[in-house]
Description:
The chain is of the alpha+beta class. Helices cover 40% and strands 22% of the residues. It has helices spanning 8-26, 48-69, 85-98, 154-164, and strands at 40-45, 102-106, 109-112, 117-119, 123-129, 132-137, 144-148. The strands form two sheets. The protein has a four-stranded antiparallel sheet, with no helix packed on it. Strands 5-6-7 form a three-stranded antiparallel sheet. β2 and β3 (109-112) form a beta hairpin. α2 (48-69) runs antiparallel to α3 (85-98). The longest helix has 22 residues, at 48-69. The termini are far apart.
Amino acid sequence: MFEQGTTLSQIIGTSLASFLLALLYLRIYLPFAPKRPGTPFGKIRLGLREKILIFRPTLIPLMLFLLVNQIPVEGIQFSFMLPGTELMIMLAIVIAAVVPVSYIFTTEAFTLSNGQVHRWESFRRYELANGVVVLEGKGERPIKQKLYIPAQKEEALRTVLKRFVG
């Protein structure tokens, strides 16, 4: 049924790696995302540093998975993934790093590229320091949303936040 040398653990490992890669790309592109509400008025392009910080929750498990895959078991090299999967993971990470990603601001919300829409009315306050914006949500159990921006764009974003948050 499978190629010689293919085991169930390799299929499961490759499936897990594929799932993590899908999560990585869904942060910036939701294929069936609703249209951005409001009128667009600003855009901040992100650099490599900001992309790594945004992808960090998915990148760390992927890198650990690649590392664990290289550990020899009982003196032999045992792979937890199908052949070629490691190369595809590294290629997908490089592609994610070079794809242009930006925050898009509208009069009613902001999004990360074509990702999830975050409405301004959902946030009650913000903190801005060292290229990180922490937006605190409303409600009994407020959710904190972090935006990673280039440091030189802080002042421009501060005026936007003063206008829409709070």
